[in-house]
Amino acid sequence: MLRLIHTADWQLGKPYRRFDSDVRAALSEARFDAIDAVGKAAVEHGASHVLVAGDVFDTEGPEDRIIVQAVSRMQRYACTWWLLPGNHDFARNSGLWDRVRTKGAANIRIVAEPIPRELEPGHWLLPAPLMHRHNLDDPTALLDTMETPSAMLRIGLAHGSIRDFSSRGESRNQIAPDRAQRSGLDYLALGDWHGALRVDAHTWYSGTPETDRFQRDEPGFALLVVLEPGVEPIVTPIRTGRFQWLQRDWTVADAEGFVAQSERLLANAEPSATLLSLSLAGIVSMSDRIAILGMLDNDLRHRLRHLAIAADDLVGRPSEQDLADLQVEGMIGTAAAKLMGMIEAGGSDSVTARRALERLFVEYQRGQDAA
Amino acid sequence: MSLKIRRIALTNFRKFREPFVLDGLSDGLNVIIEPNETGKSTLLEAMRAAFFIRHNTANRLARSYAPHGEAVAPQIEVGFEAGGGEWQVTKRFLKSASVEVRSPNGRAQGEDAEAQLQALLGARRDTSQAGDAAAHGALGLLWVGQAQALEVTPPGEIVRDSVRATLEAEVGTIMGGAAYQRVRPRIDSQFADYWTNTGRSSGRQLAARTEHEVAERAANEAVIRLAALEQGFSDLEAARARLKVLDRDLADTTDAERRKALVGQIEVARSAAQLRDTRRAEQGRLADQVKALDDLATRLADARRVVSDTTAALDKAREHRSVLEEELASARERAGTARSRLGIARDNRRNAHAALDAATRLIAARARQTEIAQVRQRHAELLPLEAELGAALVLGTTLIPTSIIKALEERERAVDKASAAVEAGATRIEFIGDVSGVRIDGLPADPGDRTLSRETRIQLGAAELIIRPPAGLRAAETELANARDDLGAILADHGVTSVADARARNEVARDAVANARTIEARIAGITPAVPALGLHAGAAALKTFVAALPESAEGAGSGEQPDLDALKVTVGEADSALARAEGVDDAASTQLRDLEARSAPLMAQAAGAERDAANAVAQLAALEAKPEIARLAEALSEARQLEAAALVSLQDAERAATAHDVAALERQIGVVDKRVEVARTQRIDLEKVIAGLEARIEAEGGKGLADRAAAAQEEAEAAAANLVRVTQEAETLKLLRDTLEHARAETSRTFVGPVARRARRHIERLLPGCDPSFGDDLGLTSIVRGGRGESCGDLSRGTQEQLAVLTRLAFADMLLEQGVPVSLILDDPLVYSDDTRLDLMTEILTDAATRMQVILLTCRDRAFRHLGNRITLTAVE
What we know:
B: 66% helix, flat
């Protein structure tokens, strides 16, 4: 029986430059922390091998610092790490993996050649490393002919998207869906799809141990795989990820509706570990829109780790009351009327006019509040 | 409310060095009429200072309050009524600056006092150097100095704000000006974050744009760098592949084997070449032999031919020569004859000439003789003449110069004069009778007269007669003696006894000179030149010639005169004979020469032909003597055969040789060798390149270029997104601000109505049918008359100043309605207005004075004295 941890797509060194520096730091750190989570899981569950199915690093040329950190974290744990070059961190001469090798970590094995390696006596690893950034062929094809004489367990390790998959895989190399069967593999550990996914009984994607983009709600996982010859593998997902990246599209009719939705969201999440990409749509009163945006900026944004708002489709239409309020304000009212005129005329300026009107309201109300 | 000034007191304020008080100002219209330079304008300045200029100001304006050159503290006191209450302001500038305000609210000093004033008057703090009317609120507008008289000044903000309420009541709801006041500045300041005043992007927009550009550039650079690194990788792969290929090539044995084959081929080729060379030599030799025999045959034939040719030529030449020989002989003979005849003619001629010469000489000698005789004769004549001449010349030299004569005459005169003087002064005595016993100066006297020149003692027996002639006599005597001596001296010098003698002598001398001249002429006459003898003119030449003559030059020629003419004729004949003979001789010799010239080449030719013939024969003989001649023809044909055979075998050998071209083979071997060489060199170079690339990759690879490029890319995107947001925000703010501005302008325009209406009321009285037009700032901009607009600046000065006053009145009215303290002060108003307009204006002012206090300061007595409350400034304490 062999216990191992299957993980992939660490994407170490991902820049996250779109985020402000605090968030960026937290996200980057989290990626390294995932290594610790995986290592701890391995130790906890008695897995002496960790298979990393590609995209360990986000690019083929990371800074030394990244490599050093990764290696040092891996070294902490008493398991053997098997690193497969993926499409982001493909293998080439004098490239990334040579630099990793020179760090000289004893428990890190780099499988940069399609040559079977023995994990344990009789337990063989058949790797299909990627040598180029773009591979059109099925890299696992050579697993068919990889010979492992007197092997009890044949475990494949590859990176790519299963043919006939949706186009949300990253790499273009197409892996045959029945590769495990064709190559006589007891288990095929795949990487590239960032979510944990069972392809078939013997073929799994582990997903990334720390979610790295807005794509799915689930946090990161690693897989604990228990293998015995002739038996279907037992695969258990273990949560290793810290952050949740949520994407939401809300249609809102008024401020209250918004509040309700956001409370629901917060209730089911841990805000400080949540990144939210929120799209709002709907037609609301001007004051409601201001209120909503205010809540987002002054409240929600601070509670969540990160908030990205697209609120252009949340249209704020001034109510009669709104306009009347302004009307008595003399010049402000005149200005507001003008802007309304532009909005209703619907020309190229109407979008800007809408925003200008909203800003006028904001400033006006701010003055009122102060007064 | 109307502000009513009651009393003004000044001390040390500009020209008011002495304390000065002005009171007696009434509620309505007050007129202060004073001549120029009495300080009317200073009053206005003082009031402004008291009300609006801070007491502790020390700027130029404040300093100007002090009387010129004095370091004292100006002080102003103004008592006035405002809002029913009594007020008093006392302000002191520069030294111990202070301010005190007394009002119904009590007393205040310093800042409090200033604050109270400002609150009352609605003024703002004025910190300008020269006073800012706009800060003075309503009174800034309504207290009009001379300099502002023509300005239709727009009211400052304070006034505008003050009148706003009035206008608002009329215009309708414009409440929320307050809200506008709150909002507008915020929008403006936010706007300023993104735009300049002129509408160009700045601030955050520029920053966002710059950030974006920077990020883009950085991303580009990162990408480029990464690409370079990637290029390095691919280059490395390519180089490694090429290296593999090269190694394969170098390991290939095909070339080595080929080379061996080629070398083998070379050997074969070499021997074939050798055979060919041998055969070629043989064939050459045989060919040479043939040639030699051929040559010989040819030469023989030639020689034979030559012999026959030369013989023919020789015969011909000989024939020519014989013809010529005959002619030559006769020519020679003729020439000989001519030559001897010539000799004879020459002799004849010589003889004839000799005879002629002798005769000529003889005649000449005879002539010469004659001449010489003549010369002797003349010489004989010459000698005596010369002697005469000599004597005459000698005599001539005895001439005494005229100057001497004159001197003599002078001296003579002097003597005469002196003796006369002596005579005159002389004492004369005459002795007559018996003079024995008479002694003069010891000497016996002689009868006769005597002249005494000095004291003379005459002894007359026992008596003595002393005669003392006058003193001068002595001198005269001395003089006489001197003069005589002088005369005598000269006479002696020249050897004459007296002047007359000298004169006579001169006569003689002159005659002698003249004589001498005559003689000279005669001498010249008898001594002409005789060229025939070589004798020059003159006596000396003649003498010399004669002296040189030999003695025996006498002797006339003996014998008869030869016949010169006959001889000449003979000579002439001889000459012509000679000439003829010469001619003949010339012709003959010329002829001879020609013939000889003609014959010479023929001779040469003949000689040559002989020689040639001889040579030809000799050569032929030599040739024929050769042994080969005997069987020449046979030998030749044999040799030809042999040579043909050798040629055939040579051709065979050549064919064999070309099949194996050594040079070509060597070239091919060379090519093979070169290829190997090149491959080796390439390999070395490649290894170098590979090493370099590996080093570079190692260096660059560790820099995380891929990560950096990815990061830079994301940053660029973020910056772009930011720029979009910023731009959006900027556009929004711009639109909002512009909209607010338009709203404000619109609103402001609606204010103008009431102002225009009020102003029109007044202006109508002055300019009927005129429509005043006001700008947004409530300043009068133009008048519309008869449909045409005239800007205020273009109106006549009179009209301008009238309008200025009227518009101010309009504002004053509005301010009054607002309860703002109002008073109108005009300093020297309406100076350009004609009488009619002036009357009208004063009516209007008088009317206005029923509502507010009006103070006019003017120097024009007649124009204003009928108005209101007249105040004099000369009421000085």
